[in-house]
Amino acid sequence: MVKNLLTSTIGLILGIFAGYFIISYFSPTQLLIPTSTQTVLTAKPKEVIGFLPYWFLDKAKPDYGGLITTLDYFSLTADVDGKILKYTAPGESEPGYLALVGGKLDNYFAVAKSKNIKLSLTIFDGDEDRIGKLISDPISHANNLVSDLSPLITKYGFSDLNIDIEPTKVASPEAQLNYQSFISEVRNQISERNLNITMSMDIIPTDFVRTNHLVVPGSLARYLDKIIVMAYDFHSPSSFVTGPVAPLYGAETTAEFDTQVAVQAALSSFDPGKIILGIPFYGYSWETIDNFERGAIIPTTAFIESNIDAEDLVAKCASCTATFDETAQESYIIYKNTDTNTYQQVFFPDAKSVGSKINFVESNNLGGLAIWALGYEGNNIWQPIKSYLTH
């Protein structure tokens, strides 16, 4: 009888705990089951990163509240040993480092923090020789980098470290493995030093479709919280013909490559929420002999046409009419250059093209947008971004 009573008591206690677990675990807030009187919606945070280059500190707005969610300072440079490059020559300070420690960013950072805008810091390098030396001893050089960065991260309150290493030459399998080890150790050092920051990386579109570049996205996915697909410069000063700078569509019809193809390739290695679509606030103007789209470029005539310059051109040029390329989802102008008796072809972003990119981001459930760069913008291009963040 005692045994039966003990068994019943234990069964009762276990039943109470089981019932509590079932009620707690399968409560409506956990199951998110909509009823006739209640629907539970979970909104995915939207991110808009604004890159602020040190050379645009006099052009950028002091306040980007309501327009971006993250302000990224571009940039500091990693030296051959991983330490932050502080001097470019004896007695000559590296400008990115000098602008940061010299206080030129202080007001931008203070305003951003007051508007709940997060801060990110980019480490950039595009010098082939320096990159080769940087990854030649990946573990110790990664340690040096994070050691140098730690006090800056703490002092300025950065919550993200952005890596932008951009070599242009073909890389050997050994170099690819060294770069992977370098990124792995940077991530490891961030954790060991309890820096409590995320880690992101800027990746050019062709890195997702070629296997002989230094950056092999699939091998780096485990170390990164997000990536920025730099979906611009599909046509650039080095191109032979004019064309959209950041075409959304058109691959295999009017173009060899486009944003959609790059993003679809990125989705094979990254969850969509980790992918940030990089968009330009600039375009290019080329000089041509022909007045049709995608005409041959007269060499060495290209120059950057910022969104604000393009807006001014459209407003002041009586003979200029902007045309919207429905395939590329980008605007362009072709007009006669009376000084040279040739034509200028200008491809540039505007509010309509940015709106198309936002629709693309939302339809593919991507994590957000990244703007290159703050300081290029005119008056109208922000409107679709405002709507994106508020609706």
Strands ordered across the widest β-sheet: 1-2-5-6-7-8-9-15
Unreliable residue stretches: 1-41
Number of helices: 12
Which structural class do the helices and strands define? Answer: alpha/beta
Task: Specify the CATH architecture.
Answer: Alpha-Beta Barrel
CATH superfamily: Glycosidases
Brief sketch in words of this structure:
With 391 residues, this protein is of the alpha/beta class. The chain is built from twelve helices and 15 strands. The chain has one domain: TIM Barrel (Alpha-Beta Barrel), CATH 3.20.20.80.
Model description:
With 391 residues, the protein is α/β, with parallel strands linked by helices. The chain has a single domain (47-281, 349-390), classed as TIM Barrel (Alpha-Beta Barrel). The protein is 34% helix and 22% strand. The chain contains 12 helices and 15 strands. The protein has helices spanning 2-25, 28-31, 95-101, 106-114, 128-134, 138-156, 173-192, 217-220, 259-266, 307-316, 351-363, 383-390; strands spanning 47-53, 70-77, 87-89, 92-93, 118-125, 160-165, 198-203, 226-230, 275-280, 282-288, 303-306, 323-325, 330-337, 342-348, 368-372. The strands form 3 sheets. Strands 1-2-5-6-7-8-9-15 form an 8-stranded parallel barrel, surrounded by 4 helices. Helix 7 links the parallel strand 6 (160-165) and strand 7. The protein starts with a helix and ends with a helix. Mean pLDDT is 91; it is low at 1-41.
Topology:
Elements: H1 2-25, H2 28-31, E1 47-53, E2 70-77, E3 87-89, E4 92-93, H3 95-101, H4 106-114, E5 118-125, H5 128-134, H6 138-156, E6 160-165, H7 173-192, E7 198-203, H8 217-220, E8 226-230, H9 259-266, E9 275-280, E10 282-288, E11 303-306, H10 307-316, E12 323-325, E13 330-337, E14 342-348, H11 351-363, E15 368-372, H12 383-390
Parallel strand pairs: 1-2, 1-15, 2-5, 5-6, 6-7, 7-8, 8-9, 9-15
Antiparallel strand pairs: 3-4, 10-11, 10-14, 12-13, 13-14
